[in-house]
Structures are given as C-alpha cells and as structure tokens.
Amino acid sequence: MLSALLVAVLLLLLAACGGNQQAETPATAEPAAEEPTAQAATPTAQAAEPTEAPAPTDQIQASGPAVCEPVEVPENPFIAQVSDKDWVKGPENAAITLIEYGDFQ
Hints:
- By secondary structure, this protein is mostly loops.
- The protein has a domain at 76-105.
- It has one helix at 2-16.
C-alpha cells in the first residue's frame, strides 16, 4: 500500500514538472486550390543596360608602418615575489612567471 502511494506521488510530481505545454490544435481543412486563370502573364522584362562604376571621390592615403612600443608594467605590491620556499618548475631567469595559489586539503 505504501509503495503504491509513493509511486502515485512520484507520478504526480513528474506530471507537475511537465511545464505549460499547449495542446496541439488539429489542422483546419485546407481551402480549395484556386484554378489557374486563362490569362497569361505578359512579359515585362526589359533589356538590362550596363552601368558604369562610380568614380572614387577620395583617394585613400597609406599611413606609415605600424610602431610597437613596449610599456613598463608597474610592480603590484599585493603580489608576493617568488621565494626559495616556493615550488618552482622551469628556469630561474624566465621571462614570465606564473604563480598558482591552491589549497589541496
């Protein structure tokens, strides 16, 4: 008896999670197809005439070569420097140092 009640409650919960789906409405009868008319369409095609490309009004001037200037990044006092107590992988004079803080408890 208890298991049947549990199954009924679970089925009700499952049905409640179904969402608000709208029932599909049956398709209405399609209107009768119109019969083709006896009149033929008159061709209105005109001969295409080639057009000339518009002349450019402004000429684009090339700029000088791109210049890349390095920027000094200031030291952040909130980031600890690498010490002898830190576990290090790689050369000591590396151009970039990644510091990962992790707690493996």
